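Ticket #4471: structure export looks truncated?
Reporter: QA, pipeline team
Priority: medium

Steps to reproduce: submit the single chain below to the structure queue and open the exported record.
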Amino acid sequence: MDKIQQQKAFDEEISRSQTEIQEQTLKHVGRELHDNVGQLLAYANMQLNALAAKVPEDMKSKVDETTQIVKDSLTEVRALSKSLNSDVLSNMGLEASIDNELQRLERMGFSSTVLEINGVQRELNDKKHNIIIFRILQEFLSNSVKYSEADEIKVVLEYQANQLIITASDDGNGFDIPSVEKGSGLINMKSRAALIGATFDLESQLEDGVKLTISYPFPD
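Actual output as written to the record:
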């Protein structure tokens, strides 16, 4: 029995270390986007605004169009940098982080996103747990955008007395669960849920969308 417990503790430590390394990498990329790419786009926007006053009238529409593209790109870079930086996410909180991600998906052209919050909101047991739950949802959302061909994504946070039930669903083409059970994305989501003592369930059928359920326990 001791060997089983030792193996479990070892596996949990490996998973925790991998998660921390991933977070440090994402944080670095988020800062680079904000500090470097964001600044370059902001500078390009300033230059285009200065140029707009000097170009011939027949060129103004093209300059205005390009300026808007740069502005939109700057908005997306800032939103993406937030979703990658765990320090920013921790300060924003779980609900605001999810809302930021859903709005970002809509700006990218996704048809419809819904965030629904029910019950009396309360803090999670640890601020780091906000990040872990958000990363699980982020993986789900990313897969929905890439593969599902869905029109709508819905995330529901249901605060109950002893647990928080998080469901995320899309109305896309779904998939056969056994075919993806060994995929790194699903394994990563499951290991992250296990780190915070949450249960994880993924349901899907071909042509019938996907539903993710996370049950996060509150202390008694």
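Status: closed, not a bug. The export was complete when the record was re-opened. Leaving a note from the reviewer for reference: Residues 2-52 form the longest helix (51 residues).
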